[in-house]
Amino acid sequence: MTENRLGKILKKMDADAPDGLKGINAHLFGVKYGDEILENNLKLENIAEISGIDSRYKMEIRKGIILSKYLTLK
Question: Of 24, 32, 21, nearest to 69 (Cα)?
């Protein structure tokens, strides 16, 4: 998957997040796509820029990527 495609997915996840849960959706994005991002050496900065999310959520995505090594989604 490309940075562009992941950016679009992240944008939709962010837009669909209920108020107060945008950070949680950033974690979920990292968990769900962490392996993809790491295996393909994709740049999180580029993905976040494409998505248009607030830059502070990049750290939350990084946390999700770290958690992706230990978690699976239901």
Answer: 32
